[in-house]
Write a structure and sequence with these properties.
948 residues, alpha/beta, Anaerobic Ribonucleotide-triphosphate Reductase Large Chain, ten-stranded mixed beta sheet, 15% strand, oxidoreductase, RdRp_reductase_class-2, nucleotide binding
């Protein structure tokens, strides 16, 4: 039979009676054509994939003769070939075509669907196979990475990227926690858990001794994650640690990573490699997990009212200590301001939207904070590419989107039938509750392409309407699946709670205030879907305890050629595009001209504005661009960046239509105050978010440690009468003939020469630096700089003074050098003055500055460890490791061509705007990563720092 829903014809299977199971799903064609296989509709071509480390040119991966559709980008081809093709490279079993990859996954899903009676007929199964194939082939959606890694291979069929564990207050349980995390990390996924059941360090053991407390046990788990992270076949370990706000050790938990940042700064200043993945970072604790404090509504009301709040015993629940709620909340904000941790999770909101409270509370989340459900459970993810549903006329095809969602949610549920899980407990819970996490990517691009500012009422209305429609269709299809293969095992016990949550979603949909045709049409269809969802669910129940989350979509976002990830706005208007045959070029995002056309600009003006953006990296002062349209092109970083509350408001707009939460970090400028961080965390609770994390630019590097001493000195000086001593410096000129040396150098790909002249009695007296083409601005500046330093040296300014001022100064070019004594430099000046120190300063003065030759470092290591010739990473103990960011004044570039050594969009943004992005270097290829949700993503090779 057929039914009309939201103006579209949809086919459903015949019922065997009210409340009885149906014979199976009847699947209609949406994207495909009967009689034509999806592979036959596209043009295929052979490509060579050669991926190199852009810093040193070494080859990271090579596979030639791979087959992809002609419309797939080079970047997507590289990512899929290197990350998802299975089999040893060079062996006959190695996959070499996208067809093989898609068939391996899709056929496994269809086979399981047939086996478990999901389809009414063999024809329905074939149509389902073709539809999934077409959507994957055309980058309409993607499953999460574990599906591509594992499904259809000899490996365990792990399909989930997100896991939640549990730990009790026993040593056996704590040791089992370490073991289970290790198994999940080994498989390339991440896990989170709540440590609040563990007794605090202020409580007694049954033996009479004092308990260690959860923070103590975090050290062991952190060390385990740091050991296993490089052993996984897919990505670094990712983990989340949560502690309830009423735990007696909550203040210690809040301060853990902030205190470690002090240690990082001290070690970095002493010459150790403290970068992410650096050889010495392992000496610092708590760096392998995201930390979050779980705050209750009771605590937040106490904060509002300035009241006392009780910290409770883990064993008895009695209040053992009271604290000022405002003071505790300020400490939380202060720590986040200092080092971005901990984040915050709002327990009241999370459990108020819980579909299965009779089976247990939600106490934790996965590492990226989007999956929130029962302990010892998992969630498999899939994300749609929203730009695939935007027509040439600027209309969002809500009906096509809805029909695609129902196909994808069906496939996601089927995967649980054949999936393997890392522990029996996780497998049991997941099969009983069947948690799914459908989501989307490219929201930022969609809003820009339709002429909406990310931080605008219109943008939020469209985002909310799309998310509501996705959730409504997912649960409607889940109810239909329940009629075919039965509801989830825990449904009967939680039926009333689940129905209540469905009503809450539907009610929130009614409150969306639409402003334009796109959001109005989408919300209208969502309203009809919510009605159908409730009607079918009242009879059948639901197949899935949860349906949706918004994940980071890092690697899979690159696979789908998305401009933006998850719910994020665009990172920047200018990016890099990889070219067939190697290399890359700077391009203005293709969304920009589409947005300008949508705003009504003629072709000539579009071209002029795009040219301006290509030159400057932003729209400010672009010719013919109206001021009221500037906000459409606001990005996460850059000249016009979205305000922190703009991010929070977007999260609040879509949160009521998600089963889980949102993986997103709210970016804040370096100038943000602790009070502003506190306000963001407070407003997150007021606006109904489930979780929130912030990142303040450069917060990983503290203020100079000498500030306190300076204050004391000034105080002492006030007590003594001021003595004025007249001093006239005398210039000591160099003789006509003097000894000198010339050093050639390379810093981050930039080549130059350092000429140093000295006095006959041994002392540096002049320098000349050759950098840049003769007659260029850079060459002129370096000549002037060299003369000023030379004159200063001749007037008696000590060389060590200059070294202390210029070492660690950060600006581009920076990176690897060709000097064995100074392996990495944060700028050309950093390198030059470290080299001068090594050549002209005695050992004792260099030791005070933390500058040593390679031989001296070798001797130190041998002396410390007593093992000459041992396998020690001497390069990791290099001198030039201080990476203190120094914000440089903005300057307009003089050319539209970026330096050849720029390797990512983040670095291009730094080049254009003169800012330093706090993103780590990729541990695989060395490219600077970019934010993706609450994780980081490498545009070069697709590696991520979290789950996607």
């Amino acid at each position: 039979m057929t039914e009309t829903v939201g103006g579209s014809r949809k086919k459903t299977a015949n019922r065997n009676g009210a409340g009885g199971k149906q014979a199976g799903l009847a699947v209609e064609r949406v994207h495909t054509t009967a009689g034509t296989h999806p592979y036959d509709e596209v043009t295929w071509e052979q490509r060579d994939v050669v991926m190199t480390n852009w810093r040193d040119g070494s080859i990271n991966f090579e596979q030639r003769g791979v087959e992809f559709p002609s419309f797939w980008s080079v970047n997507a081809t590289n990512i899929v070939t290197s990350k998802y093709f299975r089999g040893a490279v060079g062996s006959p079993v190695r996959e070499s075509s996208l067809r093989q990859l898609i068939d391996r996954v899709v056929k496994s899903y269809v086979e399981a669907g047939v086996k478990h009676a999901y389809f009414a007929t063999e024809t329905d199964a074939e149509v389902f196979e073709h539809e999934l194939t077409w959507m994957l082939l055309h980058q309409v959606f993607s499953f999460n990475s574990p599906v591509w890694f594992n499904v259809g291979t000899a490996s365990p069929q792990q399909v989930s990227a997100c896991f939640i564990l549990s730990v009790d207050d026993t040593m056996e349980s704590i040791l089992n926690w370490y073991r289970e995390e290790g198994l999940i990390f080994k498989g390339g996924s991440g896990a989170g858990l709540n440590l609040s059941r563990i007794r605090s360090s202020k409580e007694l053991l049954s033996s009479g001794g004092t308990a260690s407390g959860p923070v103590s046990f975090m050290r062991g788990a952190d060390a385990s994650a740091g050991t296993i992270k490089s052993g996984g076949a897919t990505r670094r370990a990712a983990k989340m640690v949560v502690l309830d706000v009423d735990h007696p050790d909550v203040e210690e938990f809040i301060q853990t990573k902030a205190r470690e940042e002090d240690k990082i700064r001290a070690l970095r200043d002493a010459g150790f490699d403290m970068d992410l993945g650096g050889s010495d970072i392992v000496s610092v604790q708590y760096q392998n997990a995201n930390n979050s404090v779980r705050v209750s509504d009771e605590f937040m009301r106490a904060f509002e009212g300035g009241k006392e709040f009780g910290l409770r015993s883990r064993g008895t629940g009695e209040v053992i200590e009271t604290v000022d709620a405002k003071s505790l909340f300020r400490k939380l904000a202060q720590a986040a301001w200092e080092c971005a941790d901990p984040g915050i999770q709002y327990d009241g909101t999370i459990n108020d939207w819980h579909t299965t409270p009779e089976s247990g509370r939600i106490t934790a989340s996965n590492p990226c904070s989007e999956y929130m459900h029962l302990d010892n459970s998992s969630c498999n993810l899939a994300s749609l590419n929203l730009m695939k549903f935007l027509g040439d006329d600027g209309s969002f095809n809500a009906d096509l989107f809805a029909r695609s969602v129902e196909l994808i949610i069906t496939a996601m549920d089927i995967s649980i039938c054949f999936a393997d899980f890392p522990t029996p407990a996780i497998g049991e819970t997941t099969r009983a509750f069947r948690q799914l996490g459908i989501g989307y990517a490219n929201l930022g691009a969609l809003l820009m392409a339709t002429g909406h500012a990310y931080d605008s009422e219109g943008g939020r209305a469209l985002a909310a309407s799309i998310t509501s429609l996705m959730q409504a269709v997912s649960y409607r299809r889940s109810a239909e699946l329940a009629g075919v293969v039965g509801p989830y095992d825990g449904y009967a016990r939680n039926a009333e709670s689940h129905k209540r949550i469905i009503r809450k979603h539907a009610s929130a949909n009614d409150e969306i205030r639409t402003l334009h045709a796109n959001d109005a049409d989408t919300r209208s269809l969502a309203t009809a879907e919510w009605q159908r969802c409730q009607e079918i669910g009242a009879v059948n129940g639901w197949r899935n305890a949860q349906a949706s989350v918004l994940a980071p979509t890092g690697t899979i976002g690159l696979m789908m050629d998305c401009d933006t990830t998850g719910i994020e706005p665009d990172l920047a208007l200018v990016k890099f595009k990889k070219l067939v045959g190697g290399g890359s070029m700077q391009i203005v995002n293709q969304t920009v001209p589409r947005a300008l056309s949508a705003l009504g600009y003629p072709t000539e003006q579009v071209e002029a504005i795009v040219e301006h953006i290509g030159e400057h990296g932003h729209v400010v002062d672009a010719p013919s661009l109206k001021l009221e349209h500037y906000e459409v092109f606001d990005c996460a970083m850059g000249e016009r960046s979205i305000t922190p509350m703009g991010h929070v408001r977007m999260m609040a707009a879509v949160q009521p239509f998600l089963s889980g939460a949102i993986s997103k970090t709210v970016n804040m400028p370096e100038t943000a105050t602790v009070e502003e961080v506190e306000e963001v965390y407070y407003q997150g609770w007021k606006m109904g978010l489930k979780a929130l994390a912030i990142y303040r630019d450069n917060c990983k590097v503290g203020q100079p440690l000498s500030a306190g001493k300076g204050a004391k000195a000034s105080t002492a000086a006030e007590k003594a009468p001021e003595t004025v001593i007249e001093y006239r410096p005398v210039r000591k000129r160099l003789p006509k003939k003097r000894p000198s040396q010339t050093v050639s150098f390379t810093v981050g790909g930039a080549e130059g020469y350092l000429h140093a002249g000295s006095y006959p009695d041994d002392g540096l007296g002049e320098i000349f630096v050759k950098l840049g083409k003769q007659g260029s601005t850079l060459a002129g500046v370096m000549d002037a700089f060299s003369m000023s330093i030379s004159v200063g040296l001749q007037y008696g300014i000590p060389l060590e003074f200059y070294v202390s001022k210029f070492q660690n100064l950060r600006f581009e070019p920076a990176g690897m050098t060709d000097d064995p004594d100074v392996r990495i430099a944060t700028s050309v000046l950093d390198y030059l003055f470290r080299r001068l120190a090594l050549d002209y300063l005695p050992h004792d003065k260099r030791a005070q500055l933390g500058i040593f030759t390679a031989e001296e470092r070798t001797a130190q290591v041998n002396a410390d460890y007593g093992t000459p010739g041992a396998d020690v990473d001497l390069e990791g103990l290099r001198t030039t490791v201080d990476a203190t960011p120094t914000r440089e004044p903005e300057s307009k570039p003089t050319t539209t061509e970026p330096p050849a050594r720029v390797g990512s969009s983040t670095e291009l943004l730094e080049l254009r705007l003169g800012t330093v992005a706090d993103a780590p270097l990729c541990m695989t290829c060395g490219t600077k990563m970019r934010p993706a949700g609450s994780c980081y993503l490498c545009e070069g090779c697709g590696s991520t720092s979290g789950c996607s």
